[in-house]
Amino acid sequence: MSDARPPSAAEPVAAETDLPEQLRVRADKRERLLADGAEAYPVDISRTHALREVRQKWGHLAAGEETDDEVTVAGRVVFIRNTGKLCFGTLQDGFDAEHPAERLQVMLSLAEVGQESLDAWKSLVDLGDHVAVTGRVISSRRGELSVMARSWQMASKALRPMPVLHKELSEETRVRQRYVDLAVRDTARELLQTRAAITRSVRETLHAERFLEIETPVLQAIHGGAAARPFRTHLNAFDVPMTLRIALELYLKRAMVGGADRVYEIGRIFRNEGVDSTHAPEFTMLEAYQAWGDQTSIAELTKKIILDAADVVGRRQIETADGVIDLDGEWRWLGVYPGLSERVGVEITPDTTAEELRRIADDHDVEVDPAWGAEKLVVELFGELVEPDLVQPTFVHDYPPSAQPLARPHRTDDRLIEAWDLIIGGTERAGGFSELIDPVIQRQRLTEQSLAAAAGDPEAMQLDEDFLAALEFGAPPMGGVGVGIDRLVMLFTGVGIRETILFPLLKPQQ
């Protein structure tokens, strides 16, 4: 009956003599159930009440009070205490979008269930099993709401032992065996519910603003919409190479050309790049496009999306190691060049040379690639020296053109583009543009990207003739935004990206 460490995920459950002892014991119990004519995984569990429903209806019972009301409850066994004539167990049921997992005590007495059933409970039930219990609702002498069993039934025999509930799981175990994490840790369940609430809030905000949710292809012949290295695959039916999408942008804009006024998609994005506390190769992105808007209007929409999500979570002030983020405070606008100039104490403009920027990088111990031009150096220096200190919400804007090839040239300074990144807590949470709709300039930008790709840049976009053809039919002026859903969840929960993604991609175990 002992529940020691959980076996490795690499250890198979099979009829083998070298199985760990706990797995052999549990497999034997499964066989004994079947030999006795019982089912280890029956389909006909006639549950009458969820555990929370029992608490809601009979939670008022005083200590020692009993009823004749009979229920059938079911759940995972998370605690067992077996004595001579009276056994105790705690069941835990599932959770959903509105309710946390609930627990309820069950009691099995010799007088109520009989010797055979009591002995079977003691010998066959382990922590982690799902069982169904039928009996009267009572309150124990200690005031614990309980079901006094008349009968019980195995609902699902667990062949692997669960971790001890009060023992902290390592992060590695949590992310590799998320199903275990969810079963034993309240915080894991709450995080999943929080993510679902935030995602639902984003959809509700956009729906209230009359945005149309659409779906775009995951498999794409041409990768574009961002500077990122794609995952490559092959479509056997057409015998053509394909990539997994690195952004949602280009197909959403095609819908705008077709007359959709406001569109969005929340979807998975795939980038074959590094993995760290804020980056994952597979993640969830929101992209939204608004006709007759620009970077300012889309910034207001982004602010509303985040504030609405904050209200769902229940806090607009977020405590961090770097101070309290106040979402009710000013959402500052900071130019890239003025912000970097202030940080390094030297005026930097779009005319500052790459040589001068490399000297500044050396002075501040920032590693840079000697091949980078001035625009790339400015963006990298800002990211290293300024961005980490932007704790309060800040729209970093007026980027050089190479930073965002799909953004419109600035209306007053053609050395800049109308684009911003929203930095909160030192991390980029969203990016917005006045979208480039001039097909001639867009062709020039994508041609430059394709030449960079041909020269060996793995993150450069390809020339997408179909997208350019769509723009040539005419797209309305528009603002667009991309919001990292995982990073939005990170903002409100304070955990890393591996925790916010339910089943993250991980390095294979040896």
From TrEMBL:
| Gene3D superfamilies named in the record | Bira Bifunctional Protein, Domain 2, Nucleic acid-binding proteins
| GO biological process terms on file | lysyl-tRNA aminoacylation
- Cofactor (UniProt): Mg(2+)
The catalysed reaction is: tRNA(Lys) + L-lysine + ATP = L-lysyl-tRNA(Lys) + AMP + diphosphate
One of this protein's Pfam families, by short name?
tRNA_anti-codon
> Cellular location of this protein?
Cytoplasm
Q: Which UniProt keywords apply?
A: Aminoacyl-tRNA synthetase, ATP-binding, Cytoplasm, Ligase, Magnesium, Metal-binding, Nucleotide-binding, Protein biosynthesis
Chief localization = cytoplasm
Q: Where is the Aminoacyl-transfer RNA synthetases class-II family profile domain?
A: 195-508
A GO CC term attached to the entry: cytosol
One term of GO molecular function: lysine-tRNA ligase activity
The UniProt subunit note reads as follows: Homodimer.
Q: What's this protein's family per the entry?
A: Belongs to the class-II aminoacyl-tRNA synthetase family.
HAMAP family for this protein: Lys_tRNA_synth_class2 (MF_00252)
The name this protein carries in UniProt is Lysine--tRNA ligase
